[in-house]
Design brief:
Helix 6 packs across helix 7 and helix 7 packs parallel to helix 8. The protein folds into two domains: 365 residues, Glycosidases (TIM Barrel, Alpha-Beta Barrel), CATH 3.20.20; 89 residues, no CATH class. The protein is built from 14 helices and 18 strands. It is 29% helix and 14% strand. By secondary structure, it is of the alpha/beta class. The strands form six sheets. The protein has an eight-stranded parallel barrel with strand order 3-4-5-6-7-10-13-16, surrounded by four helices. The N terminus and C terminus are likely disordered. A hairpin with a 2-residue loop joins strand 14 and strand 15. It is an enzyme of class 3 (hydrolase). It holds the Pfam family Glyco_hydro_17.
Length: 502
């Protein structure tokens, strides 16, 4: 059982028990070679430097946000309806577990990038006969491309941790044959070939900077990485902080997994302080790549998500947790902060999943990862819709508080200074402009933890998108309709009111 890393608080983070983190998709409606499969391993978000980043990186430009489109259900909308739904969101990429022609065709001329997949069971045939790969490309790519923007073909899913040695050794030849087939079709520079890995490919991952790939298949892994490095393909991984929390269900672990305020966890080798599980897991993979000599290989997140409900004995699934994880993850990606080892660039991330899949076996949580219901209504809102209008309020002309119908995020009564100090440190340490509460600033007085934290918490809430989960702070904050502004200290109720934000 690989351990991610421990903090100074002696908190261990379990990446995943293989038996717990494996789930298989069996898709319907794909050509004979394709039956799709998948499985999952798996204080607060790193928030954006300023709200103008949300404007610059608008819905149309958020190419780093994708979604998994599973078909293990009997009640899904027709593909053209789903295509229209996707176009109404900031989702710019879709991952399929197979190559359903109706879905691929429905996404034609939408500008949405498409990832299609080859099932594990098809790997032996692809590996043994180059003509099988050529026929696959002829059947599943050429009829649709370029109108349907296929960008990646994933050959197999979590093969390296499947325990099937024969399949593991056949994976690289299958990928090479697929790549050669794309070359023959003059598409190798447009469509890449990769495979998807669970986090269990890592071993000795404590701390993240010391992570390595499992030595039991390091030679095979090195061959795969050499292929994707040579072809400019990405390494696709499935990090699931949800599974890490399920293995260590303590409040501090939950906050760490949900991008909520927490003490952080320090990588003792680099002294880097991680404030969320997602970054720690992704950076562990980055370190393993670097150690093996593949510093230029790009990482993409093929799956990550959180169930919004589960059975009574399941730890972690809830509407609040799912909304917090996915919503805060989106905010983290939009911030362009990146991870400590890959700063300044978001990792391309495919959320799991677009819809609930009512035919999936297993516990109730397996059928509750969807962002949308089959009737196209949201299970919960994480700000993906393009047509969401950000509420605004006229600038305050009087320094005295008055009710305007807007909301402010303020500390709950009874919250301790220790809790507020943690919130203050987190907000001001992650890109939010706290100069108004510095000496000489209009909100410096009164010089108390409570006053400074109140201003900082509200500013984070306003710049993060004004979603209810942005005013959680580990349940130490509450939304209020009473304007807390005083004297010359104006608490913004929209980003435009903050004088320090362009």
């Amino acid at each position: 059982m690989p351990v991610l890393f421990s903090s100074s608080l002696q908190i261990s983070v379990i990446l995943c028990r293989k038996s717990e983190c494996t789930d298989r998709h069996s898709e319907k409606g794909s050509p004979s070679l394709i039956s799709a499969m998948t499985s999952r391993d798996h204080p607060f978000m790193l928030l954006f430097i300023a709200v103008h980043l949300l404007i610059i990186h608008s819905a149309e430009s958020q190419s780093f946000i994708g979604v998994n489109y599973g078909l293990v259900a009997d009640n899904l909308p027709p593909p053209p309806v789903t295509a229209k739904l996707l176009q109404s969101t900031s989702v710019q990429k879709v991952r399929l577990y197979g190559s359903d022609p109706a879905i691929i065709e429905s996404l034609a001329n939408t500008g949405i990038g498409i990832v299609i997949g080859v099932a594990n069971g098809d790997i032996p045939a692809l590996a043994s006969d180059p003509n099988v790969a050529k026929n696959w490309i002829s059947a599943n790519v050429l009829p649709f491309y370029p109108a349907s923007e296929i960008i990646l073909i994933t050959v197999g899913n979590e093969v390296m941790t499947s325990g099937q040695r024969n399949l593991m050794t056949q994976l690289l030849p299958a990928m090479e044959n697929m790549e050669n087939a794309l070359h023959a079709a003059f598409l190798a520079d447009k469509i890449k070939v990769s495979t998807v890995h669970s986090m269990a490919v890592l071993k000795n991952s404590e701390p993240p900077s010391m992570a390595i790939f499992d030595p039991s298949f390091s030679d095979l892994m090195k061959g795969l990485l050499g292929f994707i490095d040579r072809t400019g393909s990405p390494l696709a991984i499935n990090p699931y902080p949800y599974f890490a929390y399920r293995s260590d269900p303590r409040p501090e672990t939950l906050a760490f997994c949900l991008f909520q305020p927490n003490a952080g966890r320090v990588d003792w080798n680099t002294n880097i302080k991680y404030t969320n599980m997602f970054d720690a897991q992704v950076d562990a993979v980055r370190s393993a790549l670097n150690t093996m000599g593949f510093k230029n290989v790009e990482i993409i997140v093929a799956e990550t998500g959180w169930p919004y409900k589960g059975d009574s004995d399941e730890v972690g699934p809830s509407l609040e947790n799912a909304r917090a994880y996915n919503g805060n993850l989106i905010a983290h990606l939009r911030s362009m902060v990146g991870t400590p080892l890959m700063p300044g660039k978001p990792v391309d991330t495919y959320l799991f999943a677009l819809y609930d899949e009512d035919l999936k076996p297993g516990p109730a949580s397996e059928r509750a990862f969807g962002l949308y219901k089959s009737d196209l209504s949201m299970n919960y809102d994480i700000g993906l819709s393009k047509n969401i209008q950000t509420p605004s309020m006229p600038k305050t002309t009087s320094p005295k508080p008055k009710s305007t119908g807007s909301l402010w995020c303020v500390p709950k009564s009874g919250v301790t200074d220790l809790q507020l100090q943690a919130n203050l440190d987190y907000v001001c340490g992650h890109g939010i402009d706290c100069s108004p509460i510095q000496p000489g600033g209009p909100c410096f007085e009164p010089n108390t933890v409570a006053s400074h934290a109140a201003y900082a918490m509200n500013l984070l809430y306003q710049t993060a998108g004004r979603n209810p989960w942005n005013c959680d702070f580990s349940q130490t904050a509450i939304l209020s309709s009473k304007n807390p502004s005083y004297d010359n200290c104006v608490y913004p109720s929209s980003a435009a009111e903050h004088p320090c934000i362009p």
